[in-house]
Inverse folding.
């Protein structure tokens, strides 16, 4: 008896998103290391947790593919782009989260007509991405107001530590 599986288009889309989740994991790991190196304790804690949640997102996709008898693809993960400053992390994170929001949004639209179950499955990721875009939007609004003031950034980082 042959077990059922996803169609190729759905599998490819999910494998691409799996690669993106690992890429996000690496990005946040790099951001956490930058924060540790520069004694931004709030950032170190916050981005370490972000890295961990990206791995959880990847795990959910891997499990979904496996349950549908599709072998998850584990592709090489690119070295993250160098981080130039504390604020730079938040700008890069915003762009990364927005790009992933767009990818899940596009997948949702394309999958809706072909596979309602997979459509439903990816809605949780679309929600996660929307929340992340909003969260980084707020961070960037606050950081913009500080205009590079180091004392203000130190305070921001303390707040991040207390709230995460
Ligand atoms: Fe994620």
């Amino acid at each position: 008896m042959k077990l059922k599986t996803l169609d190729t288009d759905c599998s490819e889309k999910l494998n691409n998103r799996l690669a993106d989740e690992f890429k996000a994991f690496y990005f946040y790991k790099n951001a956490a290391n930058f924060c540790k190196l520069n004694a931004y304790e709030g950032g170190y804690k916050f981005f370490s947790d972000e890295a961990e949640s990206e791995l959880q997102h990847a795990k959910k996709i891997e499990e979904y593919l496996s349950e549908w008898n599709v072998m998850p693809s584990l592709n090489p993960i690119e070295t993250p782009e160098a981080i130039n400053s504390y604020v730079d992390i938040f700008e890069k994170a915003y762009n990364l989260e927005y790009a992933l929001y767009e990818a899940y949004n596009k997948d949702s639209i394309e999958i809706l007509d072909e596979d309602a179950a997979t459509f439903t499955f990816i809605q949780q990721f679309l929600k996660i991405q929307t929340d992340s875009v909003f969260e980084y939007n707020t961070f960037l609004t606050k950081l913009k107001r500080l205009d590079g003031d180091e004392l203000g950034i130190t305070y921001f980082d303390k707040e991040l530590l207390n709230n995460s």
Remarks:
- Residues 146 and 152 are 6 Å apart (CA to CA).
- The two ends are 50 Å apart (CA to CA).
- Residues 8-73+83-163 form a domain with the Ferritin fold (CATH 1.20.1260.10).
